[in-house]
Amino acid sequence: SVVLEDFYAILKSRSVCAWGECY
Amino acid sequence: LDNLGKIFLTTIALVLLSLLRSTKGNNARAALRDDIEASALLDPLEIEDLRFANENLLTKSVWDEILKEFREVGRERVTYGTFMNVVLRVLRRIHGEGATIQCGHLMDRVVIAEMDRVGREIDASEKDGESCDATKEIELPLSFLLAALSLALYSTVADRIDALYNVMVLIQGFNNDAGESTTAPLSIDPEPETLRKELPSVSLVQVEQMIQHLQNTCQLVPDAQIVETNANVPYQTYRVGDGTELTKRAREAMA
Does residue A1 sit at the B interface (CB-CB below 8 Å)? Predict the structure, then answer.
């Protein structure tokens, strides 16, 4: 299962980079 | 020493070969990126227009109200018509009669493309199907429609992530049903930190689906969607990854 913090990290990772904002 | 010339030439040939291989690989990647950009339903400027046009209309608090309304509806799949009725009902309750999503045609474009895709899938599965000309009747996952609506959500990235997470919690509530743990706090909390601790976790499958929805609604940058194929001879080739692959890669990187 995934918690909010993990979801945040996934979306902001370079592999997903949602909305062009990634680490 | 007798073979010095041969060794030298072989080395040069190997260097040239590796340069050629790397150039071909990079070109393949760039070509795929161009393809993704060219076939995108919305370009970044249109997304920005959609977001700014709804600056005062679709904020995080309105979004939370919309989710509450969908919790009442209690359905995991709805038609686009039903979806928009609910959204407009909330908008009009908050902003008064006549309120509507601005630049809604941009959102329509994304949803209609998805309905076409789903319609084609249905046609393919029912060979002698009554070809889905009734695209209006096609039900789409609520999570997809909300991901499409999030295109118009005017908020920070952190709030948008919260908003999408709440969508997954809502859908999970439908799945668990029986009404119990559905009651996830749907924000409007002055202390988001407290809220985060209270939010239940969601399944990995839901996250993968949400990433897929974000991909289908043009909210991921083209570069991030590219994954390597197994074919790396004579040079590395690439393809567009799906939600599952992108999530897996992100989780591996996190680990």
Answer: yes
